[in-house]
Amino acid sequence: MLLALNQRLNAGGFSGFRGAPLPPSFQLVSICFLRNKPYKLPLPFLILMAKERRLITSALPYTNNVPHLGNIVGSHLPADIFARYCRLRGFQTIFIGGTDEHGTASEIAAQKYGITPRELCDFYYKIHKDIYDWFQISYDNFSRTSKPIHYKTTQDFIARIQKNGFIIQKTISLPFCNECKRQLSDRYIEGTCPNCGYDKARGDQCESCGSMLDPEKLKNPKCAVCNSSNIEFKEKTHLFLDLEKLSPKLEKWIKQSKWREQVKSLALGWINEGLKPRCITRNLKWGVPVQFKGFEDLVYYVWVDAPIGYISSTKEWSKTKWKLFWQKPAKIYHFVGKDNIPFHTIFFPGMLMANKTFSLPYNVVGLQYLNYEGGKFSKSQNRGVFCENLASTGLSPDYWRYYSTYLIPETKDTEFYWKDFQDKINNELVGNLGNFVNRSLTFIVSKYNGKVPKAVLTKADKTFLKSVEKQIECVKVAFEKVELRSALEETMRLSAMANKYFQDNEPWKDVEKSKNALYVCANLSRMIALLIQPFLPDTSMKILKMLNAKDKDWKKISKLEIKPCQKLNKIELLFHKLEDKELEELKTKTSKVTEYFRERLTKEPKPIDKQSGHPLEERSMMNKEVEIVKELRAQKKEEKPAAMQKLKACPACRHVTYEEFAKMDIRVGKVIKAEPHPNADKLVILLVSFGKAMEARQIVAGIKKFYPIEKLMGKKIIVITNLQPVMLRGIESNGMLLAASENEKLGLLTVENDIEEGSKIS
């Protein structure tokens, strides 16, 4: 008699019969004995396939604002879809996330609100968590970088790097704003790039040419918070990660990776520029304290402690199993936006190499940006889909998850369009998927009393099922490549194949023929339900419930598991069509953002620009982290445009001085979008491009009477770009176009020659 002794292995090592080594994809689960002695079974009988371990992370969001759909599409949703797929395939999978709570961004926002950084992060953490829960982002653990477990993990992680000889000390000059009375992190100082001349370069990187920068290299530096040029560079000794020492190893690893080409190219671009030691400490109060003697007044730079948040969150998930997912042969997948690619392909891997304890990521899934209706998301302009409002729209998360999957910017920027949203829902969710499942199951209820008919499959049926099996494999291949949009498209292609099969067999005509068709369609409904589960979890569960199916994974996805005579449950409609009226209501409801802390902000004096004397509005060209401050301070009432204020005149001759005139930034702009103002008959809303000189601006102008909308498109105009933003009938205007008027005539000022957009007028 054979006796089995089950051995559950909790460690990563494996061994075979009598110590023979096993390949890493196998795990010993039992040893067999015969008469109390080892029985010499062939190796395959002694081992079973081990479940591959996969750790999936999504970029940690800042907790100082309300996420919009672009934030969801940029990391959380694709990571969730892939995690759900991995679980269905039977991989040991954990999906880790959390919030990034330290750094200047949180300090500044909290200061504006008159609260502590922790109070700010506590408040926004709940908002983020509620949104991700509603969206059914299936995190196994969603932690915070302000937790004690993270502080301890970060300090231990850096201590090991220091022990391994990759931490060095350097005395450097760091920018200090004398107006804000604070040291500025690289993201909060801007100026002219020394390489390409772009005048909105950040202290760490130029968004125009992609060059790595140090704040001291910027020309004409100024504070991005208060706009002051009163910047002083102060010397202090800080700790550095010796990236230069790690560069050869990083380069070899990146070249061997199987990442998407744009991710690999961006990473190698940084390598080719030449890596230098990178500062890992900052003179701030809010952050993980530095534990080394002589540096206790510093905290770790936020870019250092944030990715360690993946490790501390995993440790929080399980104190006993967490290491299994951070060491080989486990595979680590990072899902990040474009601006986070360098941190996950250069800096964090460099830290991991220096630490020598953890595995490097298997794949860095770098995504691009989601735009909105031809422009960018903007809370102050009510432009976009803001996630705090989605739960109140009446649509289930699956409507948003479906369209959002098509918007995942895998290789290039994508655009949210309401008309496209409506078309995708009506033509695909309703007309394809919903139509097939509801029609097939309703037929079974009406013709066979809700029981799946018995069938004798024909050669044609079997041939069709072979093509279905191949199509399912196409979906799996797309998932393994992390081509999630393609995986959804292949799934919907299968649904279209199922619709055609139903239509070709015409089950309403021939009772005998309908038995085969409806039996196959019931099984197709189950297969499709399982395939769409990563994308549409609610819909998948509804279909499986209607079928009375008990599947938990994809082990038997291609099998005909819905048996003859199986009783169906109550059939319910999966989706409804979006009519134009409902679409307009959705657009209005989802574009609004709650103005948290408004009472605190309006009681405080507005900061003043030292040069112009006008109140400042925080611009988010380079510090998106404090954009919420600007938006919450926007006044609802209509304000008189700053352009109407007269320039200071010379008392003697009423002339303005050149210095006064030179304060105006006048540039050539090109109209790339024009639409009527929703609340004013005479106003139009223009989106004006300035090329590489600056971001496109939204400008509200009273020219509708003189220029039809279609004649404005593509027109080059002259714009004053540095006026204080104003609200005109509820819409923010960020500039003033120049025009000449006489009686009832008006003409826009433009340029004769083909002058490049963004060119300065002087």
**Global morphology:** globular
Q: Describe the main β-sheet briefly.
A: 6 strands, antiparallel
Radius of gyration: 30 Å
Helix content: 25-40%
Mean pLDDT: 84
Structural class, from secondary structure content? alpha+beta
Written account of the structure:
The structure is a single chain. The N and C termini lie far apart (97 Å). Residues 1-49 and 602-654 have low confidence and may be disordered. 36% of the residues lie in helices and 18% in strands. The chain has 762 residues and is α+β, with helices and mostly antiparallel strands. The longest helix is centred in the middle third of the chain and has 31 residues, at 418-448.
Summary?
This protein has 762 residues and is α+β, with helices and mostly antiparallel strands. The protein has 20 helices and 31 strands. Helices cover 36% and strands 18% of the residues.
